[in-house]
Amino acid sequence: MHLPECIMAATETGRYALLGGGILAAAGTAIGLRSMREDEIPRVALLSAAFFVATVVPIPIGVGTTHPTLIALMGLLLGWRAFPAILVAGLLQIVFLPGVHGITPLGLNTCIMAIPAVGCYYLFRNRLGGAAQPNGRDVFLIGAIAGATGVLLAAIIAAGSLLLAGGPIMRLGILFLTVNFGLALVEAILTGSVVQLIYRVSPDMLLAGRSSGASKIGLELES
Does the model's pTM come out above 0.90? Predict the structure, then answer.
């Protein structure tokens, strides 16, 4: 799901995409940090580490491999705080997995993951914590749909970035979008199962923070 530096920097429009991604990532990270309470730092750090670890777990799809993303799970549990969590995980990838994607596309790659995560927060969080408490099967379905949605949204943003880069890179965008349909199925099962487990063991993790800074900032942006 990460776009390497050599691909996006190969064209002028690709470099503009990198610049735009960096600006958006900085803005999203600022919102996430502003919404983060001190007592939430350990959970954000834990999920950031989990996101990093997931990126080194290969999943064979067709002739290549991919890896879990945990995009929807990050969004459901963190909201806007997913931006700094994913940014830090990206920095860890650069340090411990050199050559994966480089420092230049860090902002764009953060946006590819974090924007769908925040989108999943607003699309699905209230369905898990509404007045009518869902049963276990419904929780799994909500988590599964969120998981698939997060991956597909990220794939669309990544493919759009490749298409924006233009030239022969445009073909990679279409291929990228097609390959990630398989990952969406894997992510749906994984996210649905994890969300269902969290809902049974510690539902407060899914219900907490609905009136936190992340939600308040979201309301500010909407008003």
Answer: no
